[in-house]
Amino acid sequence: MEIDLLDFVEQCRDLVKQALGKHAGEPASGGFARWVHVVLHCFRLEEGHSYRETPNRLKYMAEIRDVLGLDRDELPDYSTIYKSFDRLKMWVWRALLRVSAQQHPQSGHAALDSTFFDRRAASSYYRQRSGSDVQTLKVTTLTDRESLAVLDVHISARWKHDTKTGPQVVRRNADDLLSVAADKAFHNWITKYEFYALGVEPLILQCGSRPLTKGHNTLIRSNGYSQRWMAETSYSTTKRSLGDAVRALGWYRQFREIVLMFAIINIEKLCKPL
User: Fold this and answer.
1) Model pTM?
2) Less crowded by CB within 10 Å, the N or C end of the chain?
C-alpha cells in the first residue's frame, strides 16, 4: 500500500502513546523513551529495513527525526533497536493492535479465519541449532467485516485446530461483537453453544449434505456469511504490503512481529495515499 511515510510515522507516534499510556515515556533501551522504540519498529517493518539500515536511513530523513524527537548525531545504535524488541513484551504490540483497530468504524460483525506465515526466512543453521522443525506459523485473526480492521490475532506454532483457537479469540472480544462468520473448519456444537452463551451469533457453515444441513447453510449465507471473505482480503493486503514470511529468529520475536504487521496494516488504512 503506497502511503505518505511522514503521515504514517505521525499516526504511529500518536497511537503508540495512546496504547502505552503512562508507560510511553519510560526508557526501553539506551535511554530512549519506550514510544520512540515502538515507532522505530513500525518504521523498520513498514520500510523493510534491517536493524543496521534503520539508523542509517534516519540520518537522511530530517522530518521523520523531528517527529521522533531525535537528533542526527544521537540516533540509537542498531544494536539498541535490536535489543529493545526483546525488552518490549507482547502486551505492547497487542495494545497497539487494539488501539489501531479502534480508529476504524466498529460494526460488531466480524470474520474469523486462519492463514499461515513462513518462518523459513530465518537461517537453516539457526533452526537446526535451536532444534526447531516448524516451518510455518498458523495465524487466526478476527477482522471487522466492514472496516477490514484486524481486531485480534492468535498465533500458534503447533497448528491447533480451528475449533480450539476460534473460541479463544472470540472470547477475548465478545463484549464488542454481535456476530462472527467462519467457515466449516471452525464448526462444532461446543463452539456454537459457547458463542451463543457469549451473546455472539455464530454464522458458521456445517459439514454434510443432509437437507437440514443445506437449509441451515442457506440461512447462514443469507444472514451475512458471504462477507467472511473480508478476512481473506486483510490477509492479502498484509502479505502484499509486508510479505508472507517472518524475519525474526526466536519464536517469541516472530509472534510479536506478526502482531505488529497487522497493527501496521490497520495504521496504513488511516494514512493519506501518495
Assistant:
1) 0.89
2) C
